[in-house]
Structures are given as C-alpha cells and as structure tokens.
Amino acid sequence: MSTGTVCPGGNSYSQDMFLTAGEKGILRLWDVAARKIVHTQPLSHSTVTVDSKSTANSIANLLYRKESGQIIAVTQEHDMCFFDLQSLRNIKTLAGFTDDIIEIKSLPNRKALVASNSAQLRIFDLETMNVSTIDGHTDNILALDVSSDGKWAVSSSKDLTVRLWSLEYNRCIAVCRGHTESITAAAISKMASSTLFAISSGRDRTLKKWDCQALARASADRLNTADMSSEIVCRSALGHEKEVNVLSVSPNNQLIASGSMDRTVALWNADDLKRIGTLKGHKRGVWSVAFSDVDKVVATAAGDSTIKVWSVTDFTCLKTFEGHANAVQRVTFLNKGLQLLSAGADGLIKLWTIKTNECVDTYEAHSDKVWALELADSESRMLTGGADSTLIVWEDATVSHQLEDNKMRQDKLVKKQRLINCFRNKEYHEAVRLALDLEQPRNTMSVFEVVF
C-alpha cells in the first residue's frame, strides 16, 4: 500500500505499508521502514472463531482493492473474505468450494446451517449468500440438527465427538465423548420449553442421550469463555444390529426414532431409552425418518426406493409410496401432514399426496444425489443440497400460479365476448385474430364463410 493510505485506526501513514496473513487467519499491518507490526487484526474482526484449532481459515492469498478500500483474502477452503481496510473488520464472506452438502437446517432470519463434508459448520444468509463459519470438529461432520427455536444445534463427526452449539453466540459449548466409532446420526429435542437433550448414534450401534439442560441455562458470560469441559449426563442403549443412519425426535419430545442399515426403524421412550417398538418392512437400509406434527405417524425413506408411513401406536405400515428410481435419502411432512416431500439418489425431489398415494409433482435441478432437504419460512421455501455441492433455495409458487391461472381465465372470457361483438359488428379481421388466439377453428371457418 502506498504512502497516505488510510489504514486501521484511521491513521494515514507516511511510509509504505504492507499486510500479511497466514495459517492462523489473522491480518497484520507492517511498517516497511521500521520493519515492525503496527497493527494486528482483533480476533473479533476476523473469520476465526474463539476456540478454533482448525487450519480451514488459513489465508492463502491477499488482494488490496484501492478503489473500494477493501482487502480480499482467499482461505484454504477457497472462501473469499472481504475486510474493510480501516478497521480490518470482516464485511462479508463468499463460499468458494463446497463439497457434498450432507445436511441443511433452517434458522431464523432467513439463514441456514449447513454441513458439507468438512469439519466446519457454515451459516448461509439465504438473501445475500454471505457465509460465516464455525470451527470445532477436527474431522468431517456427518450429522446435524437444530432445536425448534433456532438457538441450539448438535453435530456429530468422524472425530468421535458430539458437539452442542449456541447459535446465538456461534460457539461450541460442550463436547460429548463416549462413542467408539464414527457418529453418523444426531438429533436434538424439539420443544423449546422442555428439557434440552441430544441423541447420537453411529457405527458402534449404540444410542446415547446427552442431558444439555444445565448448559441451556448457562449465562452469556459462560458461553463467552473458552471453557468447554462441562460434564453432561449420558444414558446409553444398544440400538441396532448394524450402523445407525438417522435419528429423529418427536415434536412433543416423548419419542425417538432410529433408522438403521439393518432395514428397521426402532422407536424409543425418550426419558429412559427403552425400546417400545420396531418398524419392519423396508428391504434395504433406512436413510430418513420424520415424525408428523399432526398425527401419530412417522414417514421413513430407504435404499429400496420406497417411502413408508407407519403408525407409532400399533407399529403397522399404513402407506407405501413408489416412484424414485434409486434410494430415497430424505423425507419430510408438509401441508399439515397431508403431503410428503422426498429426495433421492436419482437427483429428484418429489411431492406426494398421502391420501391418494399419488406423486403430484417432481422437481429436478440437482445433477447428483440429494442428501439434504429442509422446509423453511412456514413451508414457503424449500432448501436442498447434495453430492453436486449445490445449495438450492426453492420458492413455493402455488399462489402465484393460481393468480396467473385466474388471469388467463379472465382474459379468455374477455376475448370470447370481444369475438361475439366482432361478429355482430362485422369486424371480420379482428374476429379471425381472436378466434385463432382462442384456438377455435370452427369460428375461424365461420368468418371465412361469411367473407368469401
């Protein structure tokens, strides 16, 4: 940077300056003549979280844009971070390379929490696609869930840990250890007013329940410290014969469902982890389980390309849906439990009406497996992601399509009346045009017969 450039602190230095950054992701301003650092970026202004030990935020390249007074930093993860030169505060971050999107969870204020085959969690602003990262895990994240109030999240990883996160402070507040193999499934309690707990399982086939209520009552001062040594009460139960793929907590926090590669879904009492029933019927491993918010049923999706709806009272299969060409990776209820949305390894998203077993629509935008499916903004938006490394935001166009159809019907009625008037007034040229627009060949022939 040349002499006179306004730098951090509002100072205009008389000497040439330069910026450096590296493995720790912190920017430093140097005085060329004095050969010393004159300003170090505060941690709060950087993209590095307080307890981060990851090298994902390591800065590989820097670019100074004189016309805008900004510094652009490219991280090890290929993210582009924009910093204001005067304060070195991070203005925005654009995601560069995103690997397979494993899970997406909706957050308040039109944001989404994303796990993408890395050790980082990413929070996307769905309006600007600005992204912020949260570090903590030391290996790829395999599962993710968020509480219904959007304040808490739980994640599990290949690093054999389960982490509880405060989304108000973007901090990891607890690390849960006890699993002996990769933790492929995790879920968190749904009712905000009830006891906060997390459930985890994985390749060791063991279900573990972590009591997080004490942490939920922690003060802001506690969350702002780097102390994450909290003791969390854990209850365990042997789950399945094979690896557990998915966990889900019922809306009232009373039941837990686990889906496994052993082709079954187990239902558990959430208080004591006692098994109360088993759902059998799928021919391949179960990838997704979803509770209905309205009825006492669950929907399951499996590698046998089917979706099933089950009763949680007598454990019988009520409905089976077929239509996907490959494994169905995700399923969820919508429209007050009257419909289902599913996503599959065929890259398709399908909308089903439960009463008729009918697939009423198919959406195609992904070029590979769809791993993540989430409804947001009172079901007016759908978020999907998958093996094509693409996050897609879908808008519910039902109302706009209805308005468009109504307008077309009204326009058609107006044209029909104008056609009648043209016949009466012997305006045959206009009558031919209207008859062709309305696709009425008989009326078109009638005009020609009158004229000729």
How would you sum up this structure, described in words?
The chain has about 450 residues and is mainly beta. The chain has three domains: about 5-95, Thrombin, subunit H (Beta Barrel), CATH 2.40.10.480; about 105-400, YVTN repeat-like/Quinoprotein amine dehydrogenase (Methylamine Dehydrogenase, Chain H, 7 Propeller), CATH 2.130.10; about 400-450, no CATH class. The protein is about 10% helix and about 45% strand. It has five helices and 36 strands. Strands 6-7-8-9 form a four-stranded antiparallel beta sheet, with no helix packed on it. A four-stranded antiparallel beta sheet has the order 10-11-12-13, with no helix packed on it. Mean pLDDT is about 85; it is low at about 1-5 and about 225-230.
